Structure to design on (293 residues):
């Protein structure tokens, strides 16, 4: 695998924390780190007769250089032996990072950047990339230097299967245990689950349903565990509401991995409510993995 890990930087404290994490991820994978900084306006947003836009013309070159140089220093401190390249592009960060993700092994961003509004829990760049990026997205958030297992949300969906594959590989890279967490309840359509809904609102044979959910969890894990015999795997079946259970599991995890959409989402949505809840409220870093389209 030679595709780089990319990290988006804008000079904010959140983006510099993302650089630390991205550098370690690149080191673990044995691939380069690509530092991406977007500024100004994309060429397509300018009038057709406008001159080419460059930071030098607007006196921004020292600032741009300073942002990227600080990020590179942080990366070298976190992982001294990795190869680092820079990508400084005139354009909107959302568009630039989406394009960069097409040739990346992993994209890493902070939870909020300089352009965020006070009070928001998550920046627009993270949400956009989780829904539209072409590689797994890791959003750095929560407590600093988290320890514990890698937790993966198992739900039986195609995107969920891709997330499980990523989580096994990530646990192997980190030499960490893996918790395969499958949350179930008696709601037949999980998209309608709400905070005030009682767990027994839908009539069902709970014992039969539990057995079926246990089989789903066992089959999902067994299909990959043979490829990663060195990983200690806990299969955790929890009867609860999905979002609170995963957020609670993140309290003692170093990373939570989830698919972009689960089996209970509405058709056409690119990012499901579970992954959005984790991106906003998890107590550790979150990686969103999109299945093949």
């Amino acid at each position: 695998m030679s595709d780089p890990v990319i990290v988006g930087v804008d000079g904010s404290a959140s983006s510099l924390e993302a650089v630390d994490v991205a550098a370690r991820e690149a080191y673990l994978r044995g691939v380069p780190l690509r530092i991406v900084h977007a500024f100004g306006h994309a060429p397509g947003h300018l009038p057709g007769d406008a001159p080419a836009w460059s930071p030098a013309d607007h006196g921004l070159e020292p600032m741009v250089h300073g942002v990227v140089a600080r990020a590179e220093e942080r990366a070298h401190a976190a992982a001294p032996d990795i190869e680092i390249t820079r990508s400084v592009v005139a354009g909107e960060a959302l568009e630039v990072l989406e394009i960069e993700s097409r040739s990346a092994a992993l994209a890493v961003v902070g939870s909020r950047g300089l352009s965020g509004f006070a009070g928001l829990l998550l920046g627009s760049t993270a949400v956009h990339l989780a829904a539209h990026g072409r590689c797994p997205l890791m959003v750095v958030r929560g407590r600093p230097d988290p320890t514990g297992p890698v937790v993966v949300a198992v739900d039986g969906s195609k995107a969920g299967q891709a997330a499980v594959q990523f989580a096994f590989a990530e646990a192997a890279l980190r030499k960490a245990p893996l918790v395969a967490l499958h949350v179930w309840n008696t709601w037949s359509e999980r998209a309608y689950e709400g905070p005030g809904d009682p767990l027994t609102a839908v009539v069902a044979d709970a014992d039969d349903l539990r057995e079926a959910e246990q089989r789903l969890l066992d089959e999902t894990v067994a299909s990959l565990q043979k490829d990663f015999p060195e990983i200690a795997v806990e299969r955790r079946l929890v009867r609860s509401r999905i979002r609170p259970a995963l957020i609670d599991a993140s309290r003692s995890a170093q990373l939570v991995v989830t698919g972009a959409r689960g089996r209970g989402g509405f058709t056409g949505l690119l990012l499901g409510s579970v992954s959005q809840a984790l991106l906003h409220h998890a107590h550790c870093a979150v990686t969103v993995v999109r299945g093949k389209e």
